[in-house]
Design brief:
Structural class: mainly beta
Shape: elongated
Number of strands: 2
Oligomer: single chain
Largest sheet: 2 strands, antiparallel
Radius of gyration: 14 Å
Helix content: under 10%
Length: 65
């Protein structure tokens, strides 16, 4: 099961959800890939960002929250 609201996998702090860079997070079109090809698995809807400023996930090249 996919759960965006799990705590940070590195430090256990709460996470906030952000849209992927370059997107507004809002669409007028149907959900799914723009080219219409299905079967490769959907990308995550959002990015998880740890709320702990000192967490290694907040560093460039760090692990994902």
């Amino acid at each position: 099961m996919y759960s965006d609201y799990e705590k940070c996998a590195v430090c256990g702090s709460e996470v906030r959800l952000r849209p992927h860079p370059g997107t507004s997070g809002v669409t007028d079109g149907p959900a799914g890939p723009a080219d219409g090809v299905l079967g490769g698995g959907d990308p995550t809807v959002d990015l998880r960002e740890c709320t702990n400023d000192d967490c290694p996930t907040r560093q460039p090249g760090g692990p994902e929250a």
